[in-house]
Write a structure and sequence with these properties.
alpha/beta; Rossmann fold; Hypothetical protein af1432; 5-stranded parallel beta sheet; 57% helix
Length: 371
């Protein structure tokens, strides 16, 4: 505000009045600008002024019209009307337009005149202070918003890193478990590849592909706490051994439960041995109660189990395993899932270690389907 100088704009078509009022205000230490019409007010006014003294009766643009124009500029400069013996209608009209106060002409009491000017200046200073505070507050809010956004990005990055580290640790444990058994070594990786292959063929979303991948990776993690000797024994399992093995979906879901970011995976892991006819375990859910991802894991897990060697039986070739899936459509497996898998597995070219010649994960990474 011009280094603390208080500026007052006086508009009156009477040169003697505006000169006299101007000299009085200069005597009180104010910087004064004089104009003779409303049009000149609009040409001169800017946000640097503290107070405007405005004559009502001016040719061309009178005081009221000038006040209307000032209101549109929204400078919020207090306006004091200079008036002679004004009527009540004039006072009401001026107040409705937002006039701050009135000064009668001629000015006779300088103390009252100066007191009104000072009060108008205080009003203007309050307006400027409030405006400055709002600007500072907005700047502070924007700065805080930027800081919060930056912190959220860091938290998101940390969360992703923590999730990835957790998944990698669990995958290492899973691999270590499988390496103990020659016949199940590689089972998780094959099931994961089959699941991703089928998920892509069924047009799953990116988020569902991520969930499907994790579910396949950890569908048998419950076996970490089960004595594997019964799995490795030659011959069929006893009833007690089957009861023990059948606990692994529930155990696996309980292992996953503390990981809040894997709630959907927990459901799939718990129910990947259910059947669409309700005769599976552990909960006996039917097809209507099983989601699409669980149905996928059920099919690919069974397919790999049939095509993998076991102590107690010979593995099936792909054609025989697919035929078995077809035979169990509508009872053990979802019909549509089996149909799509059967069509898709034909183009899946296994090699000696049981994986595709062109690893599917490369394809998914190229399509930005995996994190």
């Amino acid at each position: 505000m011009n280094n603390g100088i208080t500026k007052i704009l006086i508009a009156d078509d009477d040169s003697m009045v505006r000169t006299t009022v101007g000299k009085i205000l200069e005597m009180f230490g104010y910087q004064v600008e004089l104009v003779s019409s409303g049009k000149e007010v609009m040409a001169e006014v800017n946000d640097s002024y503290h107070v405007i003294l405005l004559d009502i009766t001016m040719p061309g643009m009178d005081g009221f019209e000038t006040m209307r124009q000032l209101n549109r500029l929204a400078f919020d400069i207090p306006v004091l009307f200079l008036t002679g013996a004004g009527s009540m209608d004039t006072v009401v009209k001026a107040i409705n337009l937002g006039a701050y106060d009135f000064l009668t002409k001629p000015i006779e009491d300088l103390e009252i005149f100066n007191a009104k000017i000072k009060k108008a200046i205080e009003k203007r200073m309050y307006v400027l202070k409030e405006r400055k505070y709002k600007v500072a507050l907005e700047d502070d809010i924007q700065e805080k918003a930027k800081q919060l956004e930056s912190q959220n990005k860091l938290l998101f990055t940390y969360s992703n890193s923590l999730e990835n580290a957790t998944v990698q640790l669990m995958a290492s444990l899973q691999n270590a478990m499988e390496e103990k058994d020659y016949y199940t070594a590689g089972h998780t990786k094959r099931v994961t590849e089959y699941a991703l292959m089928l998920g892509m063929a069924m047009g799953l979303s990116e988020s569902d592909i991520v969930i499907l991948r994790r579910s396949a990776q950890f569908h048998d993690i419950g076996k970490l706490v089960i004595d594997l000797s019964c799995i490795q024994k030659p011959g069929k399992l006893t009833e007690d051994e089957w009861l023990l093995i059948r606990k692994h979906p529930t155990v696996g879901a309980n292992i996953i439960q503390p990981l809040g970011f894997m709630s959907k995976e927990q459901f799939i892991i718990r129910h990947h041995h259910e059947r669409v006819d309700g005769k599976g375990y552990p909960s006996g859910l039917t097809g209507d109660e099983l989601d699409e991802l669980t149905k996928i894991i059920t099919v690919v897990d069974s397919f790999d189990a049939m095509t993998s060697r076991r102590n107690y039986r010979k593995n099936k070739v792909m054609e025989d395993a697919v035929e078995e899936l077809y035979n169990c459509r509508g009872t053990q497996f979802d019909e549509q899932t089996v149909d799509i898998f059967a069509r898709t597995i034909v183009d899946f070219k296994p090699v000696k270690n049981g994986f595709s010649g062109e690893p599917l994960e490369k394809l998914y990474e190229q399509q930005n389907m995996l994190k």
